[in-house]
Specification:
Layout (H helix, E strand, L loop, with lengths): L1 E5 L3 E7 L14 E7 L1 H11 L4 E6 L5 H9 L3 E4 L6 E7 L5 E4 L8 H14 L5 E5 L10 H11 L3 E5 L2 H7 L6 E2 L3 H8 L3 H9 L4 H14 L2 E5 L5 E5 L2 E6 L11 H14 L4 H16 L18 E5 L1
Parallel strand pairs: 1-4, 1-8, 2-6, 4-5, 8-9, 9-10, 10-11
Antiparallel strand pairs: 2-3, 6-7, 11-12, 12-13, 13-14
Helix pairs in contact: 1-9, 4-5, 6-7, 6-8, 9-10
Length: about 325
């Protein structure tokens, strides 16, 4: 079982254009899709598509449109009822793959709702191999909630992965999660420096800054660090070493959810006993496949180009 937690889920509405976005002008949509969203839900959908047991945990009322969409996908999930509807996140996708995302803040959780969500996560983790804590936190939820949940899960013997940003990310490192999945900007948040510079260096072939920062973070947490670098690929850093993978060539349709699919690919491969190199290969294959699909559509194994992913160790 791979349990995912999405504290701030969403309905993801994607508007696809047949021409570049023209600010201040009226344009017609070529296509519109609505899909269940939020990082943890995206991870769970990819894991479910790979045939592994998964459970998505989230807050949402029983008649919320998100719950209805989840029922339609067949994704196993459990939710804590809340009074307000979940947010809707808007993505505008241009023909060249450029995506513009506008995220709503989401409904706040009361102290009682948050306590029930925390207890539900602990209960759902009873037979879980991994618990993935994913995405932003709703308004009013303490920045250290992921850290507190991680400590509780560790006390129960569970492994925890975290994919978040901002204050919740800064609060999590001291909780020593077993896996962190930052991008270049989030890695810079944790270690210091400039995320754009890290990403630009990687795109130019200089992986030393990313490797150095990821190694420092892995030493701090004692766990693995999977750093996604967009079109440049990804770096995996563990106690055993560091590896870099470049993605296959694809036609980018939407980058929304690609990082979530990368995390899913890593957890799927780890669940199957893969080596660090093959965990990274699978992560990059999943992320690339997601970017080639519309909206936040999760890839399944038939979408993967594992042979097109090239992995090499970093000294």
């Amino acid at each position: 079982m791979i349990v995912t937690v999405t504290a701030n889920p969403s309905v993801d509405r994607t508007i696809s254009l047949d021409a570049p976005l023209a600010r201040g002008h009226v344009q017609r949509a070529a296509a519109v899709t609505n899909q269940p969203g939020g990082k943890g839900i995206n991870v769970a959908r990819a894991v479910h598509g790979a045939g592994l047991r998964t459970l998505a945990v989230l807050p949402a009322g029983p008649s919320d449109p998100l719950r209805i969409q989840l029922e339609a996908t067949g994704l196993p999930h459990r939710s804590v009822p809340i009074d307000q509807p979940v947010r809707t996140n808007l993505t505008i996708a241009e023909p060249d793959g450029t995506t513009t995302k506008v995220n709503e803040p989401g409904p706040g959780l009361s102290a009682g709702e948050l306590a029930r969500l925390t207890d539900l996560v602990a209960a759902a983790a009873a037979d879980a191999r991994w618990v993935a804590l994913c995405g932003s936190l709703p308004p009013g939820v303490p920045d250290d909630w992921y850290a507190a949940v991680t400590a509780r899960l560790h006390a129960g013997g569970h492994r925890v992965s975290v994919d978040t940003s901002g204050p919740p990310l800064l609060a999590i490192a001291g909780a020593r999660p077993d896996l962190l999945k930052p991008n270049a900007f989030e890695l810079a948040e944790l270690i210091g420096g400039d995320g754009a510079s890290l990403e630009a260096a990687a795109e130019a072939g200089d992986l030393t800054p990313v490797q150095s920062a990821a190694s420092a973070l892995a030493a701090r947490t004692g766990g693995a660090v999977l750093t996604t670098l967009g079109a440049a690929g990804a770096v995996l850093t563990t106690a055993e070493g560091s590896w870099f993978a470049t993605p296959p060539q694809i036609r980018v349709r939407s980058t929304v959810g690609a990082g979530d699919s990368s995390l899913a690919g890593y957890l799927i491969a780890e669940h199957r006993g893969a080596s660090p190199e093959d965990r990274l290969r699978t992560a990059v294959a999943y992320g690339s496949a997601a970017a080639a699909l519309p909206g936040t559509t999760p890839p399944d194994p038939t979408d993967l180009d594992l042979a097109g992913v090239h992995v090499r160790p970093l000294s």
